[in-house]
Amino acid sequence: MGKQFRYGTGTAPAAIVADTRDPPGRVYNGARSRTETGRGTIVARAAPIEDATVVATATATAAAAAPRLELRGVTSTYREGLARLTALSDLSLAVADGEFVALVGRSGSGKSTLLDIVAGLVEPDAGEVLLDGVRLRAAARLGRSAYMRQRDLLLPWRTVVGNAGIALEVAGASRREAEARARARLGEFGLEGRGDAYPAQLSGGMRQRVAFLRTILAGHPRLLLDEPFAALDALTRSELHAWLLGLWEREGQAVLLVTHDVEEAVMLADRAVVLSASPGRVAHVEEIRLPRPRRRSLVTDPAFVRHKAALLAALGLLDPEGLP
Amino acid sequence: MTEPLAPPPPEPLDPLLPPSPAGWLRSWAPPTLLIAAFLAVWETAVRLSGTPEWLLPPPSAVARAMVEERGLLLANAAATLVAVLVGFAVALAAGLLVALLIDASPTLDRALYPLVVASQTVPVPAIAPLLLIWFGYGLLPKVLVTALVGFFPIAVNTVDGLRAADRETLAMLRAFGAGRGQQFRLVRLPAALPAVFSGARIAIAVCVIGAVFGEFVGATAGLGYLMTRAIAQFQTDRVIAAIGLLSVMGIGLFGAVALVERLVLPWRRFVVRGGTDR
Known about the structure:
By secondary structure, chain A is an alpha/beta fold.
């Protein structure tokens, strides 16, 4: 299955070990849903180095290892003219290794702010951000997550491989080396033979796949995806869904996906967190108990529809009693 | 569950291929025809009206002067060309340096930007004689006048270009862990290059004017020097021949900068032709 263990290298200082007991509201469906859905082998991946210490000091199971990313009581405000508005209010959230979490919310619910905070671009006004169990300030969080936005943000003067390798170059690789590593994975991203094309020569779906390649090549254990499919047509989107799931099942990053598309959240995620709008708070957490690998045909499955209805209801878009 | 994605369709049109003969004709025929028509009207009008040659020579007389005096014209054109090229090089170096300084710190921005603007409001006719007094009749005053007029478009365009880098792209790079230096090298500088070339194209054109002006005021060689002497002797055909030569030089230099731009920024043609964003 080509499992890759390259992310299991986090080191947690002793002070953090005490925090690895389950805080209220944090759900680890990692190990459980894996075994339920016949993906038990994946659990082996969730065995970071901290385990020895954790097991020795606390009565922790393997699944209780520090989450890849965790927010505790995060509040974030921003200025708009003279007013000071709250984007996120007392928000707590954790994503474990190999877990796929979707953040669903209407516009103005601070979803993108949340990703900016995890990436280290923004420091929250209150609360803590922990990566691999270590509390880090914004500057220290930079360069630890692979961040992808709705706009592909490809540099028009760089070719496909030049764009895809840019995170590697930031990390210190030479341009030649970065491009070679990008070129080696073109086929996997449906970009075979287009390595030397410029972004302006590509279709929207292809450009987005280059952005994905760039994000994955960054080699980080956390993927922050901010509506990466929103600008694409429905067919391309559904094709990329299947493809992203395949990629994630091989590599097993902790994924935090921001979306306003409820169906997308149910199709992809282990867990969907609904944010209320201004200020953003956790309004509802929906465990998506659908078998993996997920097939397109799931959309008509009663369980799929139930999850979707629950999310729509939490968003206030549906009568909670049932279907529209 | 890794469904392989379909391979992309081949591009139907490769913009890197040289243009077809038809395309070549399309781009060169209009200006050639326009100039030919203009010369024909000029020639006919002068002949029919019987205008004396010292007042307005017909194109044929100008052409004759060009051929007969080619040694003189070319020697002086070479002197002007040297002044233009050296002046442009100085303008480019100074313009880029000042733009980088302005970009580097808000304090330098406040300190330098007014001076950049002032450099453009300095009346060249007033400063050229001063430069002549200070530096004599050699190449240096010509080069300084040329650099002075070419400096402004390069500096201003480069500053704008450096500020034009996409904020979201820079944020993405920061999230990847890029420091200020890497952001500059990987995004801000390449993003500024099209603006730098826009400035350079304007600069090379005004540098030709600057060099000729420097030669008007005081020089011992150059087309500007040749023209002042020819005007004093009513050698109108020679003046117009020099102007024609200057135009050819200007177009050639402009084309050379545009060619360098195409080589340095090969991606630009796709952005323009494809009409995609950015």
